[in-house]
Every structure is written in structure tokens, then in C-alpha cells.
TrEMBL record:
This is Methyltransferase type 12 domain-containing protein. It comes from Bacteroides oleiciplenus YIT 12058. SUPFAM superfamilies: S-adenosyl-L-methionine-dependent methyltransferases (SSF53335). PANTHER family: METHYLTRANSFERASE TYPE 11, TRANS-ACONITATE 2-METHYLTRANSFERASE-RELATED. Pfam families: Methyltransf_23.
Amino acid sequence: MRSDRFGLRFIIAERSMNKLTIKVCPVCGSAHIERAMTCIDHYASSEAFYLCRCQDCGFLFTQDFPVEAEIGRYYETPDYISHSDTKKGLMNKVYHWVRSYMLGRKARLVAREAHRKTGRLLDIGTGTGYFADAMKRRGWQVEAVEKNEQARVFAKEHFNLDVKPHTALQDFAPGSFDVITLWHVMEHLEHLNETWDILNNLLTEKGVLIIAVPNCSSYDAKKYGAHWAAYDVPRHLWHFTPGSIQRLGAKHELILAARHPMPFDAFYVSMLSEKYMGHSLTFFRGMLSGTLAWFSALGSKERSSSMIYVFRKKQK
């Protein structure tokens, strides 16, 4: 529940049958919500979930998604490679090759945007710890947080990283970090506005928040529609565009300072989307679609399959 400026009370979200129904847009607060499309969970359950759109600001989100205590079972599959680290199959091999290449690019982007070569960095949703390890090797003081216990164990065994559970966020002191990163994590977090408040609080006054999320206004999102793999229901709760995430940041006194495309994502997402549509030759079809998406993003980076957003604190 929350109050509007006239003192009236209205419901933001309703919990029933272990699912969360959003009643009010998390970005603009509008109650004008419409159903947009129905998507299938192709990874774990084959269940159908529908997406809703705010009629006022256009923000798109998954409706009636499992609550935090229940959603874990939708990640329990060997195919969920950000946690399992499997290299089985051609698409997963491509994923790992791209990740290896992107680690260097991400590290350079952090140093460039933070205007420093070392500092205090918090990686939220670190998964199996590859990025946190890469930054630690470059001299950064790294804290890493991850909800999945198996992923934390992997990070300890392979990188000797002491990754904390997600509840540790409340234990860090205000102004603890020069850089906070969330690589394809924000779309998973149930408590959206609360998370943004926490991030603002944990940053130093000149700190940098770096967020990577899928872009549901991209070339490949429009091409595949409800079959677009990056909708990834019900694991992905929120579906951002450059405009909606900028507005969300501003709501929490964070200014969007830069945007960077992630063109490689279009290849992997397109391959999965072709698979979900039941097509043959998914690798080659995905490569073709990914190439077309790449050229589309060259013309306008706002059409990139995924985007990296750099936020800075609003100076008082």
C-alpha cells in the first residue's frame, strides 16, 4: 500500500496464490495498465505468463509472477547457464566465447566511466563470479552478492571469491562503493524501487552505477514478438527501454550519463528465439537475425538487443 498526495490509499501490488499482481506502474505510478502479450517459459516450466504495459508511460512488465520465495524453482535447470556454467551445445559455447570477450570490454568501460583504474566495486547478481574475478585481478576492491547458493559455491571453488548472499546488501554502510554493477540482473529483482533507493545510498557522491538489461524496443524484440527469448518469463520481471530506465533512474535522483549498446547479445538471443519458434537450423537463422540486428544498432544504438546504462548521482 502507499498514499497519494491527497491522502488516499491504493494498492501497488497484490499477493495471492504465491504470485504478485502489479496494480500500479512501478515507474510512473499510474493505475492504467493493459495486457500486452502472452509469453511461454521455455526454460523450466512451459507455463504461460502475460506481460502488461502501462498506458501512460509505456513501461512493460511480467504480470502475476511468482513471489521471491517461490521463483527459485524456475531457475533450477541445467540450461540456465548464468548459474550452471554449462558449455554443452553450440549456443552455450558461443555464449561462453562472447562472455570471455566481453569481460575485457566491461572492465575497460568501468575504468573509463568511473575515471579511475581501481577503487571499491560492488557486483550485484555476480552469478558464478567471472566479472568479479576479472575486476579483482585488475586491482579493484571487490564485493560480490549473489542469491543462488550453487553459483556462490562455484565462485568460491574457481575464483576463491567470498560471494555474499543477497541479504548482505543491507549490511554495507552508505557511500561504500565507487562503482556498482548489475549485469543483466535488474530485470530479475522483485523489489524494483527499493533496490534503486539502496543503490543510490551505497554509492559515493561521485560514484557510478552501471546497469545492463535487455532492450524490449530493440530490432530483435520487434522481430520475434512474444517469442523473443529475452522476455524470459517469469525470471525477467521488468522489460526496459532506454526511455523507461532513464525515467526510473531520475525518480531515484540518478542521472543517466551514458548509454552503450551490447550488440553481441542479439546473436545469442536470436538463436534462442528461433529455437522457441520451433525452427530448424537455429544457429544459422540466429546468426542471420543477429547480423541484421547488429546493423540496425549501428544506425541507432537505442535499437541494440541489450543496453548498458551509466548513472551518476544528482548533485545537490
